[in-house]
Amino acid sequence: MSRVDDIVEWLPDERSAALITSPLSLRYICGFPIENSILLAFHERSILFVMARDFEEATEKADGFSVQVLSSGRQMLELLIKYSVKRIYTEADKITVAEFNTYKEQLHYANVLASEELSDKLVQMRTVKSDEEIVAILNAQKICDKAYERILGTARRGMTERQIAALLGFYIMDYGAEEIAFPTIALSGENTANQRAKPSDRQIRDGDFLVLEFGARYNGYCASMCRTVAVGSIDSTRDNMYNAVSCALQDGLKSLRAGIGGKVADSVAKATLNAWGADKYCSVNFAHGIGLEAVEPPFLRQGSSVMLKAKTALSTACGVSMGRYGIKMGDMAVLTEEGCADLTAATKSLVHI
Fold first, then answer.
1. pTM exceeds 0.90, yes or no
2. Is the pLDDT score of 27 beyond 80?
3. Cβ proximity of 332 and 226 under 8 Å
């Protein structure tokens, strides 16, 4: 069953249709990036309306839908009348008020509805990744690992956070990413204690922790990772705290599997931090989903009621903030029925540069 078919099957009856307009949802449903397009899906047929320049590519890649060049809103109105479609569901979280009102006016034959249920349906579909999506995420993670290894060899005392972040972003692109998945973070010294800090002109120096958080996009899909490295030597207190975070991340990863609740891994990681006497300094929730977006559902934290499913991709993290410094580590993981596959190759042991 194609993703378009899955949406049509969700529709309540044969007089209903789904109108998908957001580039993100179109990318997911159609399987290729496309902008300024509209997908109208109903029981009799599903049609992707595209600009003339995209017609040939869209026709070649069409799976479960036909393709037409978009000329005016009249095209869709005539289809609604022809097939007696009376209700149109749009994504409540992906359409602006102006767009919604425009469709209500143009498609006046039907009742246009902003549907949270359709939004939820697409989120549920996107949460469970296909084999092809997992391959794309794995390739994105391989780029991250290569970029990390390279920055360890080039970052040095006296360089600024901005310079290190820029170099790391360049390495990600140099290894074949379409783009960085989000703004690259490089924080040192006291800046590591501020989760909202951005790379500055502060120079890294002996005794610093350096937090690196970065991601790559490959074939539309994101991967991310985070590591804290030491600049020169550090004292035993900070070395001990680093080990606490590393163990907490590993214990959280070991607890992950399909069929458990969203708060389990977060609780396990915090319990490990507690055993090391660091739980009161915990600064992050354990994980969130990742895929076409760098941050997407599900969210693994205290209070989460979500049940995890196999083939869900997660960006995991564990961190503490001590006031004078912070430590953060994170890996990419894909859930299985028995556990999870950790896609990040980089060591979790403390690296000194």
1. yes
2. yes
3. no
